[in-house]
Design goal:
Blueprint: H1 12-18, H2 24-33, H3 58-84, H4 91-104, H5 118-134, E1 141-145, E2 167-171, H6 174-186, H7 195-202, H8 212-216, H9 223-231
């Protein structure tokens, strides 16, 4: 029913043709031109790892190909956008990312239309995922405010810490813990020679709001994250700091 060994090499050119498919007709044409790929739409329960059992007809498999190509191209675009995120994103960048998030995160539901910015949408996702993890489970949360780098730890490059070490904080309430971490971080003095100190210097020499996160990254927005966490019952932004 299908070739044990494909007689055609899946070349880069073939790949480019595949990711250009936008309709059932184009998918049909692609399968006609490349017969060695046709086996995929048949039921093959004896083939380990082949998950095409629900596509019993050429049409249903072609529809699947169109959806798969669309998702593939969206996520390739998403990867490119992520790489550009560190380069002072433009309003167009935010809008494009926002559309991808709305499309692939159904947890946002119809409320997604009310989100003003991409950071706000991300913040709501963070809190909802955290709530799903913590709900009906005993949880204790620990945060370390040490070696606070100007960029995310996921960056391959970084710089010296932007504020002095504060210490370790812990709480049964993750929202209160994050709120305390934000407050304590903003109460510090930017370390001389750090990226933060340079940015404060170039922004007229002072930070009237003393909001380090926004000064360091103008697109950073943490308030809606904690507001949403409190709204859905993950915790509260009110806390009492006990120093040990």
């Amino acid at each position: 029913m299908y070739p044990k060994t494909p007689t055609e090499v899946f070349s880069e050119e073939l790949y480019c043709d595949l990711i250009s498919i936008t309709s059932r007709e184009e998918a049909h044409s692609f399968l006609t031109q490349h017969p060695f790929l046709r086996f995929a739409y048949y039921r093959q329960p004896d083939v380990p790892g082949l998950q095409m059992g629900e596509y019993e007809t050429v049409d249903s498999y072609c529809d699947f190909m169109v959806r798969a190509v669309e998702q593939h191209n969206d996520f390739r675009r998403y990867e490119v956008l992520l790489q550009r995120e560190t380069l002072a994103p433009s309003p167009e960048w935010h809008e494009e990312m926002l559309q991808i998030y709305k499309k692939y995160f159904p947890i946002l539901g119809t409320k997604s239309a009310s989100y003003r910015t991409l950071p706000e949408m991300r913040n709501h996702l963070f809190e909802q995922y955290a709530y799903a993890v913590c709900k009906d489970r005993p949880c204790f949360h620990i945060s370390l405010i040490r070696d606070v780098s100007p960029n995310c730890d996921c960056h391959s490059e970084n710089d010296i810490p932007i504020i002095p070490d504060v210490g370790m904080l812990a709480s049964f309430d993750p929202v209160a813990l994050d709120m305390a971490c934000v407050d304590l971080a903003n109460q510090q003095t930017a370390l001389p020679g750090s990226v933060l100190a340079e940015k404060i210097l170039h922004s007229s020499g002072e930070d009237p709001d003393h909001e380090f996160f926004h000064v360091n990254h103008p697109d950073a927005e943490w308030r809606t994250c904690l507001e949403h966490g409190e709204k859905i019952g993950l915790g509260t932004r009110t806390y009492k700091l006990v120093t040990i």
